[in-house]
Design a protein that fits this description.
Blueprint: H1 7-28, H2 34-41, H3 49-62, H4 66-73, H5 75-95, H6 99-127, H7 133-161, H8 166-169, H9 171-185, H10 199-221, H11 226-249, H12 263-270, H13 272-294, H14 299-316, H15 320-327, H16 329-347, H17 356-380, H18 390-423, H19 430-450, H20 460-463, H21 465-470
């Protein structure tokens, strides 16, 4: 089996990855601009959070339809339309003169952005050989690793030195360039599946996702009361059960839940993998907060330390493929996952007086192991998913990732708050962060060890591990 990565496959993966980066950036770039935007719109800063919430909720509602749209109208066509919608709505956001106009534009932007991630991944999986999946998925996951961190920094720079409008206007030339690259590099669609749209499944999954995400986002950010946040979470779970029952019984379900019967997909997305993603998403939330609240650093110094963490993420990308080929998915996910959990725990024992070289080393190792775990999970998920199920698999994966992003932050925030209340202290201190890192790290280790239940050769056709061992 050849493990070369063809130029065409690499180009397709890069174009999709760049588009995904733009989409994820749209969701996070405005955080640092909210106070300035609030002043221009004549509203309170807290009122501006509706721009983030509107984007997230619209994305949650639209994501479940990605598989059907891709099958019905063709992946490239829908991807292009999603990019066009995102680009035009970015322009509308940048030109908005009041909060109402801005929120409407963000809702439309959320609809376009929601489709880009799952359909982009379908395009990549359709364009590569199985032996190229590790490299291809490795390229398409870097936006999810880096955009949440660099987004606020880019937004802060543009807001401070140019104008908040350019947080959105910058997407216009990028979007146009991206659409031209898609037309030039990604093959045209061939054929379509004319099946009816499952409206009941769409409504149930949309309500479930929106309620879960809004409830836990409100809990993490403190914008909703505890009873309301938990009530929304409960509503989301109840409606989610109804959605699952509907999807299992429908003759033409919106999503094919049969994908969850594939052991490697279930393990990496819905079972141990879901817990691992919670920990992967909790850590970038905890670190900058600890550096500022616990260490007393200013945002710039805290951002510098976080960049060390993400430098580890970046450098691991260069060796992910040969490591997976040498050791295989099961060994990497269990051993690396355990190391990742230990690194998270050790982060909790850092202090303002810890020598900088030691702090850098610990953050760097934490970044390395996080990146390896993230890429291995994302790749194993599609190792055994065949052509017809890839649309549903990609959509389900995007749904799980949306939930894990919000739940990871909500979990970390909840641990910090509970620790502070139990200890009876008036404000957060390093002890609370230490407890949070220990809990998150322990969850990472336990979930990683659960993956020992995978067969030894799980995903070997993709990683090439079996071929290496035979040689």
């Amino acid at each position: 089996m050849s493990h070369t990565f063809s130029a065409h496959s690499r180009n397709v993966s890069l174009v999709v990855a760049a588009s995904m980066f733009m989409q994820i950036l749209d969701g996070v770039i405005i955080v640092t601009a909210l106070p300035v935007m609030a002043r221009d719109f004549g509203v309170a800063t807290l009122d501006m959070s509706i721009g983030i919430t509107a984007y997230m909720l619209m994305a949650a509602v639209v994501i479940p339809s990605a598989s059907w749209l891709s099958d019905r109208f063709g992946a490239r066509r829908v991807f292009l339309i999603a990019m066009l919608v995102s680009t035009v709505s970015s322009l509308a956001c940048g030109l908005a003169t009041d909060l109402t106009q801005f929120v409407i534009a963000r809702i439309v932007q959320g609809a376009g952005g929601a489709l880009m991630f799952p359909i982009g991944r379908v395009i990549v999986l359709r364009s590569v050989q199985k032996s190229e999946i590790v490299q291809a998925i490795g390229l398409t996951v870097w936006p999810a690793l880096f955009a949440p961190v660099v987004g606020p920094a880019i937004g802060g720079f543009l807001t401070t030195y140019v104008s908040w409008h350019w947080n959105f206007l910058i997407n216009v030339p990028l979007g146009i360039a991206g659409m031209l690259l898609v037309l030039r590099i990604i093959p045209a669609d061939t054929g379509s599946k004319d099946r009816p749209f499952d409206w009941a499944g769409f409504v149930l999954t949309g309500i479930s996702l929106a309620a879960l995400l809004y409830g836990f986002e409100g809990l993490a950010q403190g914008t909703l009361s505890l009873p309301l946040a938990l009530g929304l979470g409960g509503l989301g779970l109840v409606v989610g059960v109804g959605a699952v029952l509907r999807l299992r019984r429908a003759s033409h379900p919106l999503l094919d839940l049969g994908t969850l019967r594939i052991p490697t997909f279930a393990a990496s997305e819905a079972l141990a993998g879901a817990v691992l993603r919670l920990t992967i998403n909790a850590t970038p939330f905890l670190l900058p907060l600890m550096f500022q609240v616990g260490f007393g650093l200013d945002p710039l110094a805290a951002g510098g330390l976080v960049l060390v963490y993400f430098l580890g993420n970046l450098l691991m990308k260069t060796v992910t493929t040969p490591i997976l080929r040498r050791f295989g998915f099961r060994s990497i996910l269990t051993v690396n996952g355990t190391l990742a959990g230990l690194a998270i725990i050790v982060c909790g024992f850092l202090g303002a007086d810890t020598a900088y070289p030691l702090t850098f080393a610990i953050l760097f190792v934490a970044g390395l192991t996080r990146s390896m775990q993230f890429t291995a999970l994302a790749t194993l998920a599609f190792a055994d998913v065949d052509g017809e199920k890839r649309g549903s698999a990609s959509t389900l994966s995007s749904m799980f990732q949306q939930i894990s992003m919000v739940f990871g932050v909500a979990l970390a925030a909840a641990i910090l708050n509970v620790s502070q209340v139990v200890r009876g202290t008036p404000a957060l201190d390093l002890t609370d962060f230490r407890i949070a890192f220990i809990v998150v790290g322990a969850m990472c280790i336990l979930a990683s060890l659960q993956l020992l239940m995978l067969p030894r050769e799980a995903g070997s056709e993709v990683s090439g591990h079996r071929r290496v061992q035979a040689a």
